[in-house]
Amino acid sequence: MAPLRHRHSIDCTNCEYRSLRVFCNLSSEALQDLETIGVHASLPKGTILFQEEDPSQHVSILCEGQVKLSCTSREGKTLILKIAVPGDVLGLGAVISNTPYEVTAEAIEPILIKNLRKNVFLAFLERHGGEAGIHAAKSLSEEYKTAFFDARRLALAPSAAGRLASVLLEWGHSTSCGQPVMKFTMSLTHEELANLAGTSRETVTRVLGKMQKEKLIQINGSSVTILSPEKLQLLS
Length: 236
Fold this sequence. Notes:
41% helix; alpha+beta; five-stranded antiparallel β-sheet; 8 helices
């Protein structure tokens, strides 16, 4: 992992994502304790937080930016599993089960994270017993549901357009923070987006163009706004 650039101005108590993400929505006492442990770090795009099959050594709470989670087959084929957004806890399952990381986590834009060493994080869970443990369990449950929906999307979506619509909707819901307008930064290339949607780069380019013409989405540079989530839902 790249050298950390420390920041000390982060206020977990007043974070806008606190009430919208499972793990960080803790009591004031637990949250104040969480603020005193770990290290905040600003990291550039392309930073590898951890790699699959490496021993699990820490969890990372994503505070700003987006992180790509992927795995690679023995033949070298890479599958993008998820785009993590602020409030997600990365490496949680591996640390709790004391097993190697299941995925590789790579920043796809500049990020701000809070790193907690394994022993520090597990001690935090012990100190706050039921509450922190339940929140960790809920976070793992969210990971399971995400994996389930991804598998269902790839297996059952009627078309490549449907799979891509599902990806865009999931991304929009995750980053909208409860706001009525779903707008997010598309930090993936068309090739990477095709990987996530289980289709080809050419198909992604064609379908995104068609969605824009039909005013389902609007793309300005890397910014994507979902104009008609209802119609995208019908596609998916």
